[in-house]
Amino acid sequence: MENTNLNQTGEMAAVLFCFPHLQGSCPRTLRLSVIRVAMYVFMVTTILMTVCGNLLVIISISNFKQLHNPTNFIILSLAVVDCCLGCFIMPFSMIRSVEGCWYLGKHFCKVHSSLDMMLSTTSILHLCLVSIDRYWAICNPLQYKTKVTVFKVILSIVITWSFSFIFSFGVVFSEVNTVGLEMLIIMTSCIGSCLLFFNKQWGIIAPLVSFFIPGAVMTCLYIKIFHVARRHAKVMSDRVATVTRHELKNQASEQRERKAAKTLAIVMGVFLLCWLPFFITTVIDPFINFMTPIVVFDALVWFGYFNSMCNPVIYGFFYPHFQKTFKIILAKIFGMNTTSIIVLS
Asked: How does pLDDT run along the chain (345 residues), one tens digit per residue?
């Protein structure tokens, strides 16, 4: 292999390979050193913020009983999903994106692809659970406590994780997504690549199951929620002059529910904004003979990963309880005096 490289033209000799001593190795992506360093800095920062931010959410809900309610248990599970993405998926994707090489072998490539698909599916299904929770809280408040119990929420979370695992690992390891693409995979495969191809059928089915159907359900529920919330606000404004103390308490509760629904709608909106370009490209790519450049796919994947960093930031800005718990936790970590921090009510 080395002798062959010596006989190549100057342009070809400059090509670097993922595994220089193996025949059939993939070429590395050539980038200026300053660009590579900038990419690593950006991606490492994103990973650290994702892991640390979601750990704050996990610790907050786990250790403060005031945050123990069905909605926050779903948010806790969602934070676990995002934290797993930051710990087990993003670091390996970072090396692949910057170097253009996969150094961990074919089998771990399948595991990585399956986990990546599983966690993104689990995320949006969790947000779907949150929208259902908010729908019952806003649109059927009298039945909320009987319909949405901790047991039902935990059962729903377990089903969500299980379905995402079976679906994602089943698709990748059964290779149904590559049926009919055998020649393309042989032509494009090389040592050091880790690409997930979808044929036309599964290029539609997988995004439908993982993204578009749950996204449509969430959108419909939130439209209904905001319609009901606006109607309640109008009724409250008409009755403001004759309210009793009990009614004021109910109104305050309704206001908190609406604010929670608004905040979680922002979480959903950010998720859709981050992942929509990737899933649209996944659907279109098989129909344009896989002409989408790998660089574009990498950029869209990282734009999707960016969502996992945004969720804790949104909670910190919009939820007073999370703001207080974050301050308490950070104060204890850095050895600051916590007496000046207001205790949760």
From this structure: 444 444 444 444 467 899 999 999 999 988 899 999 999 999 999 999 999 999 999 999 999 888 899 989 999 999 999 999 999 999 999 999 999 999 999 999 999 999 999 999 998 899 899 889 988 988 888 889 888 999 999 999 999 999 999 999 999 999 999 999 999 998 888 999 999 999 999 999 999 999 999 999 988 988 888 788 777 666 655 555 455 555 555 556 566 666 666 776 787 788 888 999 999 999 999 999 999 999 999 999 999 999 889 888 887 677 777 888 888 888 888 876 655 444 444
Residue 35, judged by CB atoms within 10 A of its CB (0-12, 13-18, 19+), counts as exposed
CA atoms of 338 and 44, how far apart (whole Å): 31
Q: How far apart are CA 259 and CA 232, in angstroms?
A: 13
Give the domain CATH number at 64. 1.20.1070.10
The boundaries of the domain holding residue 115 are 31-234+246-320
Domain count of the fold of the chain: 1
Give the Cα-Cα-Cα angle 93, 96, 101 (nearest 5 degrees). Answer: 155
Q: Is residue 94 part of a domain?
A: yes
Contact predicate 261/225, CB 8 Å: yes
* Residue 316 within any structural domain of the chain: yes
Contact between 118 and 169 under an 8 Å Cβ cutoff? The reply is yes
Helix (H) or strand (E) holding 82: helix 70-84
* Cα dist from 184 to 174, 180, 188, 198, 290, whole Å: 18, 9, 6, 11, 10
